Amino acid sequence: MTSLTPFAAIILGIVLAGWLAAAIWALSSGQRMRREGMQAQGKLDRLTSLLASAPAAPVIIHADGRLEAADRLAKWLGKDRVPSFVSELTAPDGGLTQADAAALAQEIAATQRAGRSFALPVRGEGSSRLLLVRGAPAGPVLAESGGVVLWIFDATDSQSEIQTLKARVEQLRDALEALAGLVEAAPFPMWHRTPDMRLSLVNAAYVRAVDGDGAGEVIANGTELVETVATLTPQAAAEQALSESRPVERIVPATIDGERRTMRVVDVPLGEAGVAGFAVDQHELEQAKVEYRRLEAAQRDLLDRLSAGVARFGSDRTLRFWNQPFMSLFGLDQDHLADQPVFERVLDRMRETRRLPEHRDFPAWRAERRDWFLSPDPLEENWLLADGTHLRVYAQPLPDGGLLLIFEDRTEQVQLSSARDTLLRVRTATFDNLFEAIGVFSSDGRLQLWNSRFRSIWDISDELLAKHPRIDELMRAVQSRLAKPQQANLVRELVRAATVERKQRVGHVGFADGRTFEFAAIPLPDGNALFTMLDVTDSRRVEQVLRDRNDALEQADKVKTAFVTNMSYELRTPLTTIAGFAEMMSAGYAGELGDSARDYVDGILQSTNRLAMLIDNVLDLTQGEAGMLSIELSPVDLAELARESMTRVKGDAASKGIDLALSLQGSLGTVRGDRRRIGQALDHLLENAVCYSGKGARVLLHGDGSPENARLVVSDNGPGISAKRQATIFDAAARAAQARSGEKAGIGLPLAKQFAQAHGGSLQLVSEPGQGTMAIIELPRG
């Protein structure tokens, strides 16, 4: 083994030392670079995390079309991966709408050529996501020349918020414009003051109120609406509202359109925006208040003058007003009412005076009446007091929570109603038992009322009558019962004339069974029509017989008339002489008479008076048959005349126990005729009825009328007159035969008939054996 020389060892040591130094330097440099690399890696990681958390995704487009982008871009575009080339991004299926893809390609190309920046909103295909693309040329660090860097933001939420804010701004703008239009169109003055109390806004009403030429001119001149009151200027009032942060209201005078008006001015603080104000014309309101007070006073005066009792309670249920009838009706004391007692206490006092209905549980009844204050609607009830007084109670809740009570004494009305019901029942019974068949038709032609005679004559079923048929329907149902069915049209037309034209019509109709009826349709004052039917079958038969005999008797009647007339006058002379001497003897001219002689003379006078009356009747009858009966025309009150006739026969009726009844309608009225002759006719009819009716019978004198005629009816429920007797009762020859045979041949009915005919009227006799007799006199008004 060779050993190194000292020189070589030195050289080797030097080399080893250098190598060691180099190793130490390399190791130190590596540690330093490692530390710098770790710092750079940490910075890179932080920047990467920052980019990943940034709201925008960076995209680098190289000049050759290569594309580098964050992974989230694929999610935004709805793709599985990030596009590798810009052509994939701008392709029709690149994830963007076709129009947005084309626009983005055009903007990228322009940036590559001109080096300008751009911003473009784009949307994903079939997505609601909105992306905002901001592009700029890429620096040399990011890409070579011609590169583009894109920042893509997801602006969906921000865009939605922007749209919401835009809509809100539009709403606020519309609201502001509407508010401004409302302020401008307001019918009362409105204004705004800046914080320094200068006018900055006035509406058209303000301009009109101050007679300004325009809002600008009013603001420029600072024209105030109201005047300074008690050193308080409009500006001072506005400053007070602003300093106190509350609205300030005051009533001040103002001159509007040349008139002094009372205005209610309100200043409303708006904070830093100043003060707003408005003025409302109170003039009409003040006048209304005065008018209300005047009206209330007039109402109280009116209520105090009512005959009904009135009491008004306030919202606290205390008595506020009452009138004198209220106190009198319930026997209350003035001093007690003046203390304004509560509602319950007033009821208690009424009960103490026994002016309330009797109730077993009075507290409960009183509690129910207390609920009247809370009722939404007016209430009404009837009270029957212990003394028989009927009260109608009307409770009206008032808007202010009070209660108005009205007490109407209806005792007299209730009594009158009861009497009326009784009269209606009597009338109904009378109506149903009349010999005539009667039906009442309403103005629309419906059958409203009928009696049993009407139903039996027409043989109408109760079912049909219950429907209240019209006259057309009724006639269709019964026309088969007529001898000539077409006569149903006549009946229908008569009812129509009475209901529509208000004209009275009469006629006759034959039935298939041989009966003949006379009927009349008479308008009634209430708009209805009365339809009456009388069975004149026997009269028609007798009429034919009489017509046949009339020709034969006419000539003999003329001879008889002349003879009776002469004889009547001849008989008057000795009768007058006898009566004269008898009166002289009764007066004592022939000396004082004894009692027996005086009775004889009185008998002579009575007989002569009776004979004179008979002669007058015979003469009147003869003159009537000859057509020479004298009539003196003047207005005649038939009602008064009927009462006088009833008075004259009252004594004879009372002696026989006969009930006299008088029924006169207001339609009876007056006629133009001879009062004495009409009175004689009534006397004869009543005397006949009293004479031929048995003991306890009933005689009725009824009167009514129409605009053209008046009718007087004397009826009784006596034995009646046979058809044979009726046929001869007005026949002079028959009367003569009766007189020769010793029968009683009265001339009362013929005379009554002649008196009626002399006035242009008629007398009709209706009678059946066992059903009484009815004599009807009809007289024309003229």
TrEMBL record:
Coiled-coil region: 155-182
EC number: 2.7.13.3
Protein origin, superkingdom: Bacteria
Hydrolase as UniProt keyword: no
Reaction catalysis annotation: ATP + protein L-histidine = ADP + protein N-phospho-L-histidine
Top-level EC class as recorded in UniProt: transferase
Transmembrane helix as UniProt keyword: yes
Regions crossing the membrane: 6-28
Matching InterPro entries: HATPase_C_sf (IPR036890), HATPase_dom (IPR003594), His_kinase_dom (IPR005467), HisK_dim/P_dom (IPR003661), HisK_dim/P_sf (IPR036097), PAS (IPR000014), PAS-like_dom_sf (IPR035965), Sensor_HK_Regulatory (IPR050736)
Domain Histidine kinase, residue spans: 566-782
Gene Ontology MF term list: phosphorelay sensor kinase activity
Keywords carried by this UniProt record: Coiled coil, Kinase, Membrane, Phosphoprotein, Transferase, Transmembrane, Transmembrane helix, Two-component regulatory system
Official protein name in the record: histidine kinase
Organism from which the protein derives: Sphingobium vermicomposti
